[in-house]
């Protein structure tokens, strides 16, 4: 894909420059050969040269192996997940683990239709099949809705960004630091990260462990202990994005406490989620345009699907298309993206971060400013105090995400 992009770029640039170089020493054959190399032709010194450019992949420059990124709600990513996280008082919609020195991510996510993975058509069809029986209710395949794909996946930063599971803004969650006294009076104190090995082990383990995306884990985060099967039949292993992160950090002895969600809040979330899914279906926006004739011929299909998605979120039955959730939503206990952080943490770095109107900034005057400034979790000031922070977390230090790359740079010249 990247090679085709570079070649296309070269062809466009060559086309723009042909009149200028054509009058000199670059023939049309030279121009075509240069475009095939992804370069730009240039006649200089009485000769025709091809200047070749290379793409510099994106990288999160301030992320180390095991650091976790949380992504703000910005209109991208899954509409269903964004609705859930927004309504439970979250400012962030997704969590990823970084590895390869900030060049790649490991995360757990779910697509419903082809459009969500950036493809126009997929030989395997949509990720969640719409069942349209001759008799009976139109609905999603419940097993596929319950066991979302691609599930746990490793991607480059560019791919994660292109699929809407990363943004150019966000936070990088890091382990705590400590000062270590020097053994020499002429050497300064050292700064260490005692939990860094456990962070590295967590992402290493995650990269080897298959999991589905489980919408029901927003209610009861217990699915990572389930068996794994590629059949997608039944209730199988997985979690949502931050649940996947949490499970692997807990396995390394780094506790992250669940956050309790009261029934009153979950009733509000369920109602909004139902209306959102039903209306997207009726308006045939985004993925829902694929429903086509099903929506036209069966008006109740949108109510069925809305009920089905909410029942799945409520950890009831992902096959149920009735409004069971209205009387059985109950309480919840989970770790959503904002819940990964404790009630206070240290903010580091020179870049400020706007958390829904609250500015996180590094203070000045500290003897060791690299240790950061202690700030309160912004989510605690919301309408549901306590629903946006955990009481125990290994993520004691936070920085605004710093992304580099994503551009073309000159590589070399070839004489044609």
Please explain how this structure is put together.
With 416 residues, the protein is an alpha+beta fold. It has eleven helices and 23 strands. The protein has helices spanning 2-22, 28-36, 79-87, 142-146, 157-162, 196-206, 241-251, 263-283, 293-297, 300-313, 325-328; strands at 39-44, 47-56, 59-60, 68-72, 92-99, 104-110, 130-131, 139-140, 150-156, 171-174, 178-180, 190-192, 212-213, 238-239, 259-261, 332-334, 344-348, 353-355, 358-360, 373-376, 397-400, 403-404, 407-415. An eight-stranded mixed sheet has the order 9-6-5-4-10-21-17-20. A three-stranded antiparallel sheet has the order 1-2-23. Strands 3-22 form a two-stranded antiparallel sheet. It is globular, with a radius of gyration of 25 Å. It starts with a helix and ends with a strand. The model is unreliable at 3-8, 10-23 and 120-124 (pLDDT under 50).
How are the elements arranged and paired?
Blueprint: H1 2-22, H2 28-36, E1 39-44, E2 47-56, E3 59-60, E4 68-72, H3 79-87, E5 92-99, E6 104-110, E7 130-131, E8 139-140, H4 142-146, E9 150-156, H5 157-162, E10 171-174, E11 178-180, E12 190-192, H6 196-206, E13 212-213, E14 238-239, H7 241-251, E15 259-261, H8 263-283, H9 293-297, H10 300-313, H11 325-328, E16 332-334, E17 344-348, E18 353-355, E19 358-360, E20 373-376, E21 397-400, E22 403-404, E23 407-415
Parallel strand pairs: 13-14, 17-21
Antiparallel strand pairs: 1-2, 2-23, 3-22, 4-5, 4-10, 5-6, 6-9, 7-8, 10-21, 11-12, 15-16, 17-20, 18-19
